[in-house]
Specification:
CATH architecture: Orthogonal Bundle
CATH class: Mainly Alpha
Distance between the termini: 8 Å
Number of domains: 1
Radius of gyration: 15 Å
């Protein structure tokens, strides 16, 4: 039953990410809700579930967004694994630690996507690259508590 709700949450967050209300845009930037959900799954479920649904979230993002195929699928799976390994080394019970992990994951994810975009021939001014790197990552971090609450409620279902 939980797996059905996780799948439904991925569909809803993916749809919300695509149709983000324009009055909530901050410098034409949208948060990465699926990345937050992927990292939140590592915090509240077992690794196997988090890894599989992280790959599914990346696949959903790859299918519906105009990036080259599989960049988000690979990145989300990698972030799930890295956060799982990191959670074994440090305590992740504090909110500020989780926000820091989300910020680092969002920065790395946006850097990889921006670098991939530049290497495929899309000319991007450095200011736009930095805007996409920093503002989107901070915006993603600021919205993470809301998605974490959703993830925690779904994970608590029996």
């Amino acid at each position: 039953m939980k797996k059905l709700f996780f799948s439904l949450a991925i569909v809803i967050l993916g749809t919300l990410g695509l149709n983000w209300p324009s009055f909530l845009n901050f410098f034409q930037c949208k948060p990465d809700l699926l990345l937050i959900f992927t990292v939140g799954l590592v915090f509240y479920t077992d690794f196997k579930t988090a890894f599989l649904f992280g790959i599914l979230a990346g696949l959903v993002k790859d299918v519906f967004l105009p990036w080259h195929f599989a960049i988000n699928t690979v990145c989300f799976g990698t972030w799930s694994y890295c956060v799982y390994r990191l959670s074994g080394q440090i305590t992740i019970e504090e909110d500020y630690v989780r926000w820091g992990i989300i910020l680092v994951a969002a920065l790395l994810n946006n850097f990889i996507i921006g670098l991939q975009s530049v290497t495929t021939g899309n000319i991007m001014p450095p200011g736009i690259f930095l805007r996409n790197l920093i503002i989107v990552s901070v915006y993603t971090t600021l919205l993470s508590p809301l998605v974490f609450k959703l993830t925690k409620k779904i994970a608590a279902l029996s």
